[in-house]
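Ticket #4471: complex job returned nothing on first submit. Input attached below:
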Amino acid sequence: MDLSLPDWVEDWARHAPDLKVPPPGPNSRAIIEKDRKYVSHAYDRMFQFTMKKASGSAIMDADGNVYLDFSSGISVMNAGWSNPKVTQAIKEQAENLTHSLANDAYFDKEAEFAELLAKISPGGLLESTFFGNSGAEGVEAAIKLSRYYTKGSEHISFMGSYHGRVGNALAMASRVKYKYGHGPYPPGVFFAPYPYCYRCWFKQEYPSCNLLCVDYLEKAILEFGGPSGSLASVFVEPLQGEGGYIVPPKEFMPRLRLLCDDRQMLLVADEVQCGLGRTGELWECNSTGTVPDILITGKALGGGIPLGGIVAKRDIMSVWRPGSHSSTFGGNGISMAAGLAHVKEIIEGNLCERSRVLGDHAMKRLSEMKENYEIIGDVRGKGLMIGVEMVKSKETKEPLLVPEIQGRTWRKGLMMITSGMYGNVFRIAPPLVISKEQLDAGIDLFESVVGETEKRMSTSR
Ligand SMILES: Cc1ncc(COP(=O)(O)O)c(C=O)c1O
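Support reply: We reran it on our side without changes. The output follows.
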């Protein structure tokens, strides 16, 4: 497989990272100043620069600094920044129609996109789509639909899970950080332990644990943990994203499937972050042959334009009557054109395989790094969704605060964001079109900062 950058990637982007001035440069600083004055501080800006343009797996700031991007805009730009097929589709659509009246009329690309999603859904068995505008809206739709279908009102979510920042989706999130100050939350969400084997909640080892965490859900939470017996659905990320890029054992999703079947609950797979080629599978559910009842998608679905939604089994989706759910901009002209072009690029560009090949290479390199550095506790992932968990020591596993490493790495031109319950997991999640050479250059840079940090830590002890 050719692992160089696609031909369309602009010249300047091929030389990432390439810094002209120490960031933030004067142009970025001027914009940041205005932003701080007028834009809500709710956004947690990790990088102090302003976006100017992007191509392939590189981003240029307002001062001409070029950064290598290891986050894909949080798993959005899977087929690469400014992919020309997506850009062209947006331009053509904009010249004809932007707002496509999903509420009141029909639109060709909405039907075409939904048909494609049905064909590529897990097992080809989820045949009906509702389009909204974001991942969280997809989650809200799945909550409503699972209640409507089952007549239940309670849900299982998982520790470490993240499903968005509004309403019921926020109630499904497990971290205090996200929920603080915004309650009360609707009752009826019960949290089960996710199989975070590096920090097993039950101090067990896989596989001898036989997934005690799922037993706990089944025997302790469902029987004695407070649900009223009116359960609607189990919400699960097949590979946990914000929780720390945690890959569950292969038996996990099939066990949840069985559990849901036994108890007439719907299995809802949130693939907003891990879907659409990120893990080397079109959907991460496919890796265990699990067919959920409802699949939530977002992020990469729109190729950079806001889009999210649910893809569900036909008999489940068809319980909704006209008016049961709606959105002014659902199925919007631009988001349909962009999303359709982006998903086609992922499929036709063979980006799942590329994600697997590059991911295997990165995993090998990062696992070797783990052997050489005390502060790398765990390396895990699939495809180009890899987490590197930083610790103060391998023995204690005490989480290492990482803003310093992140800042140093960025000032050298590599953008890496973090995740994890302790915020100590670096995400290696570049656009799937990144070249092997750029992937290696980024890992080299990361390694140099890890090495410097470890040295500084040992001299300050
Ligand atoms: C698994 C998962 N679900 C839902 C969401 C919410 O998506 P959005 O930010 O588009 O509302 C996210 C966002 O990070 C996510 O990772």
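The two ends are 47 Å apart (CA to CA). Closing as resolved unless it happens again.
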